[in-house]
Specification:
The protein is an alpha+beta fold. The protein folds into two domains: about 325 residues, no CATH class; about 80 residues, no CATH class. It is built from eight helices and 25 strands. Strands 9, 10, 11, 17, 18, 19 and 25 form a seven-stranded antiparallel beta sheet that branches. The longest helix is centred in the first third of the chain and has 52 residues. The protein is globular and about 85 Å long.
Amino acid sequence: MSARIVYIGIYLMVTTLIHKTSTEQLQKLKEEIATLARQVMLQQLSIEDKVRTDGGSGIKQVRIKKGGPETYYTNSHTGDSIAAIHDHSNYRNTAGQGEGRFVLNGVEFSTRHNDYLLRMPSRKLSTYHLVEDIPFPPVPRDVLIKPTVQEQIDEMREWFKAWKLQNTSLRDYRRYFRPVLCYLEGAWITKTNKIEEPFSSERHSLDANTWLELEDKVRFNAYTGRKDVFENIAYLPTTIFRITEDGVPEYAQWNYRILCHPLSKNLPTSYLRVVDDLSARLPRGNTLRQHVVTRAARFQLVGPHDNKFTWRTLLDELMSQIPGKDNYVANITDTCSSASMIDPQSKNRSRLQVGFYHRQYQFSKADAMGLYSSVRGFSDANIFMAETTQSRVSSLSSQECKDSNNVEIPKRMSYAIPLEIIYLTPLSNWNPYNLTHFSLQGTDVVTNGGKRTGGNTKEKAYNGTNDHAFYKTPEEFFSGTEIDASAADTAKGSIYVLNPDSNLRNVRASGIRILLPNIPNVGIIRTRYP
């Protein structure tokens, strides 16, 4: 055997040994990384579980703006206004709401300045995050047939009076004053680099192109104590959602949105009872009666049968009308072979439509306590959950939930809490001066590049209206100023608009308000009940 052959043999043996050692080390390293990734994932679970048991889902904090000698002088979930709500009544379809810190099923996050549009999930398609505008109620015919503007004003006041008194014998107002339930929804979304705007706003959007950029801005603001002057930064956490069989971590991104749902039936305002938040009321020296007509007031929905220990409330009935991310066409039932979920309202024990938001359910067999009924979560009285088939929502599966073929069923969940009830009124569609309404592309026609400011001259008056200059209500309909106004409000109050004949008309904003200004012979009326 030549030296060359021996050398080649030794070389091959050494190379094989090195390769074997490197492969073993690499495999061990992969296993260690997978173990560490799993530990990080479990740390996130531990944090979420502690948040879950520290309290229920809901709003936790608004931005602190002032303080005082006692703790109740500092903002909590409320301050000058609950959840930082305010008015953008010069916008056709915007409900003003600022930043906030929220918790949903143990996930704590902060929002950007929200100012959300009144939109609902699609009624026809299941397309991911497809939405449509909520229609506004019509104007009563008894108002429209009046020959003069003043007579229309007088008649419209009667309709508002009937609604305030909840007296259908004066006018049957129910078709023209429609309640919508607005809610905050959150879910873990499959991770991508490009940022996904959570929902449409005509005033705000996240100030970042990637999630990494957003995270860095959040870290900088937290480190320095600064705020984004435009309030377009949100803390939306990222997590390791699961570890693959190959030991690779899969990430998920938390995101949220605000939508609304038009209720199928009239909701008496007497069901909305003010909560006595002492921290909001006492520093301002208000009685409870005075507190009701401030923006700091919040309300509790109490149905006619809710004044006792109860398992299912009126709120459950209303939230069950709202779909998860499969929209209103959702048709999802729980099919776990171990114990499927039954609709607690069903007389024939049919399976629960889990694609709509719910808290309560029943099992197809008794649990260890001998009970059939249960609620989502362990001790969170506020959380509503819905399943979805959307692939954009991260999924988990378990041996506890298999189908009839013994295959694990992946579950994709979203979570929701109710934010507020908003009553839509005929003011949105009432146009007694027949003012021309332009699209947003016609903004220059309305304002002439900012030269028209709504002043009391033909040169300064708005030349019509649009969705951002939504002024159509006659000034005479109200008396007095806006109620409990704040610096965040954008409506100008009384302004002038040219009608089609180029005559000046004195009008006020016709969009969504928390509290309507005083209406002669009617009074102040609340339209937003957070």
